[in-house]
Amino acid sequence: MGDSWAEIAVDYSVHRRDHAHDGVTSTQTGYSEDALDEMWTGARAHFEMCYYNGPWRRRTRSTWRPKHYFYMF
Predict the structure, then answer these.
(1) Which of 2, 37, 72, 73 counts the highest number of beta carbons within 10 A?
(2) Pairing mode of beta strands 49-51, 56-58
(3) Closest among 25, 29, 66 to 44, alpha carbons compared
(4) pLDDT per residue as tens digits for the range 18-39
(5) Which whole number is the average pLDDT over 29-55?
(6) Residue 46: partners with Cβ closer than 8 Å, 6 or more residues away
(7) CA 20/CA 33 separation, integer angstroms
(8) Is the dihedral of CA 12, 17, 23, 29 positive or negative?
(9) Phi, psi of 67 (to 5 degrees)
(10) DSSP labels for the chain?
C-alpha cells in the first residue's frame, strides 16, 4: 500500500490546464495529506475487510483497494 494520496487523486486539470496541479488532494477532499494520514490510521482496519464467500475477512487480494475506497468515501 505504498500509494500516496497524490497518486490516488485524479487530477483532471492536467488535461484541461485550467488549474494548478498542486493541492489536488486538498481541493478534492478538503483535507491535507497529513490529515488524511491521521484519519487513515483509524479507518484502515474497517476498509481492509471484505465480504467474500461467507464471513467478513481481511482482504488478501487487491490490497490497493482499501486506501482508494477510503479516499472516495
Answers:
(1) 37
(2) antiparallel
(3) 66
(4) 544 457 888 888 899 999 999 9
(5) 91
(6) none
(7) 17
(8) negative
(9) -70, -35
(10) ----HHHHS--THHHH-SS-STTHHHHHHSS-HHHHHHHHHHHHHHHTEEE-SSSEEE--S-TTHHHHHHHH-
Task: Name 39's Cβ contacts closer than 8 Å, sequence gap at least 6.
Answer: 31, 70
Question: What is the separation of C-alpha 48 from the centre of its chain, rounded to a whole number of angstroms?
Answer: 12
Query: Model's pTM, two decimal places?
Result: 0.72
**Alpha carbon distance 63, 10 (integer Å):** 19
What does the block give as the cell for 12? 483532471
Q: Which residues contact 5 (CB under 8 A, 6 or more apart)?
A: 25, 33, 36, 37, 71
